[in-house]
Amino acid sequence: MGMSTKVKMLLAAREMTIKDLAEKIGTSSQNMAAKLRRDNLSEKDLHEIAKACDAVFEGTFTLNDTGKEI
To answer: With the CA atoms of 21, 10, 30 and 1 taken in that order, what torsion angle do they form, in degrees rounded to the nearest 10?
Structure first.
């Protein structure tokens, strides 16, 4: 499973859209959608995404409030 799939699962768990995520990390929704489409996310991107979603990135996402790993 690619990281873009995991990010999409994280967004679903947080009931967020790509637009919501892009706003929280300070980029455009077009840029974020393109990175997800290409599955081209840097480790820095993944840490920023985790922070924006109140999660921890360790190669997987762990939801802080439930402990669920994605």
So the answer is: 160
